[in-house]
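FORM 7B: Structural annotation worksheet

SECTION A. Query
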Amino acid sequence: MEKIVVIDDDQSIRETLSNYLKRQKFDVYSAEDGVKGWELISNLLPDLVISDYRMPGFTGIEVLKKTKQLDPNIHFIIITAFDDMQTTIEAMQQGAYDFIEKPLEIEKLKLTIKRALENKTLSDKLDAIVGSNAESYELKNVIIGKTTVMKDIYKKIGQVSSNRVTVLLQGESGTGKELVARAIHYSGITKNSPFIPVNCTALTETLLESELFGHVKGAFTGSIKDKKGKFELAGDGTIFLDEISEISSNLQIKLLRVLQEKEFERVGGESMIKMEARIIAATNKNLVKLVNDGKFREDLYYRLNVVSVNLPPLRDRRDDIQPLVYHFLNKINKELHKSVSKIPDDVINILEKHEWIGNVRELENALMQGVVLSKGDVLEKENILLPKVESHPYEFDNYLNYSLNDIEKIHIERVLKGVNWDKPKAAKILGISLPTLYSKIDNYKLGVN
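SECTION B. Predicted structure
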């Protein structure tokens, strides 16, 4: 139910308008002056404010300015008997949705309120949508592959996109898990609703909980107003939880409850909110192993793994490399305003034989570099700069002298040195999150003389 605040010092207008809106099934609050009206707005964060222009305390324009500073998405309608040009212009410049003169025409006001609330709903939805919209999202232009394993993935996308079943995407870093999640979302029943991606490694546990579930005003230091979480913003669309293996045990319990009960509450809140979104989770880890090691809840794993899609590494679908190369060249040429369109056979041969530890993402980066360095329309071999991949990178005099931790320490240190201590890049190569890498650097005291 949408919340509306009515502010007018004329009691008859205030009560008439409030009673009319209540009959229209709105949640209505009223105040007789600007100061009390502002107190209601700051506490309630309503969807719409209808305010008189001239009132004791704050004027309607002053309340409007304060409201827009608090939350630009609160819509505001000013009503007044002073319909001069200057007042109207000032109100619209400050962000009023509309300016209506007295005496009020109920049908006109009803239409304005309807449009204001529809506009706010659309605005909230557009704020939530990240990336491509449904109209511009075409599966054939995003996921490239003709191998049998990729065709099987296309079939699964078709099967799960027509319902709201929970999906678990598994695969190495760079295999395109988010692309598959977006394809599921935009090719089915959720295509006109928000797609909300969340990187579970990007925030601390406390911030991630607030990001997912939202919080109420005063829930913690700095929470000056209510905030909707990603589950709420997703509506009846899709929430994509990337790196799901990295969430804490506390958040695992809360996520399990959301999946079981289909409801949640904001941090510091007391009322339950219905969860309508479909959940797609992704990981580059072996969740079964994490379950066996006691690092991931078994019941949550089964709740997430209703339908599983396993994305193969690029080295296991080498027949897709050539069409991927042409796809990325076309994309990169448009972005960089270049025309590198010719690829010698020896270059294709090099690309098809490379191990692609970073998978499709590494291939795109290599081609981007090659196009930038190219002087003509040919992708030349000397401009394809690929790291040398050794089949046996480490030699040990006696394996019995080394623990698993010893070998892990050596591997991490050599990868860090190989990328000149570029930690985000090293984390991608190692297939671990950046916080995990920092933890291992600290544990193994790497880089300390």
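SECTION C. Observations
The two ends are 62 Å apart (CA to CA). Residues 128-136 have pLDDT under 50 and may be disordered.

SECTION D. Sign-off
Analyst initials: ____
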